[in-house]
Amino acid sequence: MSAMRIAKTVSITLPPELLRQAQDLAQREHRTMSELFREALRRYMRGEVEWRELLKRTRSRGRALGIRTEADVERLSDEYRREKRG
Q: What average pLDDT values come out for the chain (86 residues) when binned by 10 residues?
């Protein structure tokens, strides 16, 4: 016997202008509001995972380059620009 998927209803509050924009978008894309918000949530969550993975990769590379502060980033950017003009 397969598991039955059960959807749960949730309530959210939106400012009137954001609600209007969401309704317009759903209508243009021939989607229900539920479909629109499910897709938005999936994209948001996927983006969060990708962002955390990117941070993990770049933080270790930054440490290897001796980057500890925003000032270090600025310094390295300035050095790179000077080399390119060189």
A: 79 97 98 96 93 88 87 90 90
Does this model's pTM top 0.70? My answer is no
Asked if residue 76 lies in contact with residue 85, where contact means CB atoms within 8 angstroms, the answer is no
Residues 72 and 66 sit within 8 Å (Cβ to Cβ)? yes
Q: Answer whether residue 3 is part of any domain.
A: no
Amino acid at 85: R
Alpha-helical segments (H) within 1-86:
16-28, 33-64, 70-85
**What's the number of domains the chain is made of?**
1
Tokens of 5: 């998927």
